[in-house]
Amino acid sequence: MKPAQIKYISFTVIFLAIIAINAYLINSQILGLISAVAGLAVFGKMIGKYMAPGELGASQTFIGSLVLIAFWAIAGTILYYFGTISKTSVVVLIMLTPVLAHFIAMRAPKQKKDEVFLDSEKHKLSPYSILSAASALLLVSLAISVLAKTEILHATRSPWLEISSSYFYYLIPASALVCALAFRGRERAWILPLLMVLTFSIIGAALLSYPLGFGFDSFIHRATEDHIAKFGTITPKPFYYIGQYALVLIANHGFSIPIGIADRFLLPVITAIFIPLTAYIGFAHALSSKRTAIFATIAILLIPLSNFTVTTPQGLSLFWLLCLVLLSLPILMGRAAR
Question: What's this model's pTM, rounded to 2 decimal places?
Answer without folding.
Answer: 0.89
